[in-house]
Task: structure prediction
Amino acid sequence: MGTFLTSADRWRPGLVEGLYLTGSVALGDFRPGRSDVDFVAVSARRPSAADIAALEQAHAETRKRHRRPHFDGVHVTWDDLAGGFASCPGAPHTLQGRFHAGGGFEVNPVTWSVLAANAVPVRGPAPGGFDVGVDPAALREWTLGNLDGYWRRWQAAHREPLSLRGVLALHGWATAWGVLGVSRLHYTLATGEITSKGGAGRYALETFGAEWRPVIAEALRLHRSGVVEPPAGVPRPGSPFARRRAVADFVAMVVGDATAGR
Result:
């Protein structure tokens, strides 16, 4: 944080008025050596070409000094936050530490919800001291769309045994990403709130039937949230091939349950 702010202030004094940590840091699930540092930076004005060039330079200097963890997030204005994510145009952002002048997946209602309730202030007023446009209906529709779009495609691609993604699905990363990813979204639809991957795993253990406990516990084990251990005595799902089938079946079940009657 210090490296980035020092660099941004040197290249464009006064541009970055607020800096907030979101993601795993804000949700109490940061894993040293594995998690990224997610941020939202806030300015008073829409960035000019010179502003964008200065931000790119600041991020390049930050990445040069700190290659890991990735420093990923978006640059928005106070008006963007107050107006809600849907009114925010393409925002400068970083992905895996690399700067992009526009776009940015993190311009979404999940980020706005975390900013309103959980964000860790590095510079600027604490959450509650500035306006954030949170729309529960928009959060629900976005979540359903993410499940019905991205996650249906993910499940279909990763269950194909001879495809590249099917091979990648044998890796533990895919287990944690798939099982905990869809569980997070199911939790949001059920509660209207945002949780971490570790929190989603615990929710899934409490919510879904006993037949799913082995694959959920395996996802938690692979995630290594450091918050809670998977329950003792729950069997593991077997070989990587059996685990791949279990993950694909779990993702399909959760997506179907969440989007039924949409």
